Task: structure prediction
Amino acid sequence: MKIGDKKAIVIGATGLVGQALIDELQHSDDFNSITVVVRKKSDTLKTYSKVNQLVLEDFLLLNDEDVSTYTHAFSCLGSTIKQAGSKEAFYAIDYEINAHFADLVQDKNIHLLVVSALGANANSPVFYNKVKGELENYLQSLSIYKLSIFQPSLLIGKRSEVRVLEDMAQTIFKLVEKTWTRPFKLKPVTAEQLAHTMLLAAQTQTAAFKLYDNLSIQQSK
Result:
């Protein structure tokens, strides 16, 4: 089977969603190469034949030349205030790095696909939602060839790091999941569902901008 001519660059590839996305891209006939930006080489990523690892200690060191040859740029990069260590550190990861990544792809024929969150709102009193909302607003203000924003609810999957509240929520959800068969706004989604939605967007989106809400993510796989 002929492999397509799409080329992806990915930040946040070693996280829960990022790993699921790499698996989707690896098995997609549309993509012939995947570059992942990492702070140190990953043994897991070495097992994917299409993957090349670009090692950068600081993702803000990414430049125009690094991204110019790709058709698609994916960001699965995200943290929590607790994981980052402070509000300032969280902002630096979730806003500043993602904004820098977007700056690099604007005015190029590159489709940018970014994971945000349900509840993203620049006017929110909740700092996490506020930052996500500010990022979404900034992305939409840029001259980007094609933009996709994804707003998942709680993500189900096995994380490499411990997130106590999310782990508790996942456990509770799994106990009652059989009774929650129909989609609803707050229903958690799996990392695989989100990654598959991102791949479908990369393959089929024709609009210059599209927001994929939690309901549409639920229904993708």
In short: The chain has eight helices and nine strands. The radius of gyration is 17 Å. The first helix runs from residue 16 to 26.
